[in-house]
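Sample 3 of the quickstart, ligand zinc ion:
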Amino acid sequence: MKYCHQCAAPLVQKIPSGDDKLRHCCEACDSVFYSNPKNVVGTLPVYGDKVLLCKRAIKPRFGKWTLPAGFMENGESSLDGAIRETIEEAGAHIQVDASSLYTLFNLPSINQVYMFFRASLVNLDFAAGAESLEVDLFGEDEIPWDEIAFPVVRSTLEHFFQDLKKQSYPVRMFNVQHHEDMSVTTTLISLSAETDPS
Ligand SMILES: [Zn+2]
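Result:
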């Protein structure tokens, strides 16, 4: 960010009074521009014991498989954003119940928070959207585990297939750390009570 969105004057980096972090500040009109983490929201669409995955038609991770997910828009809820992304990327018709929140990942090293919601596919009329090359259903043994786009997607899928066997889907929150050697550590930091099998 180089210029003020209010008055177009050049911005400077400084710590505003009462703050303790460097911010982009405009000395012409006194505006302060904050940079905060972004929310990525998505669904885990389920049909029987299979999960819907999308093959990415965009960078990063072009050609790798992912759950439908994307950045939240202003003015929408996290769940509404996840449903919108599922329609956009997979053309999928889904239903969610009152216990849809499933996994939440804090990624402080890249300033993102991921949220995935469990959903049921209403029918099999799905089709790849503009950001997907292909959309398909996979059972646990069919998942292309070596071709999964992101650690948060792999973790959500691994927990889902374990939970499916117990028919209990507790809500989990994780911290994800990206290390300099490109490795990623995922640590469970919150776990809700087991849900009643239904
Ligand atoms: Zn300004």
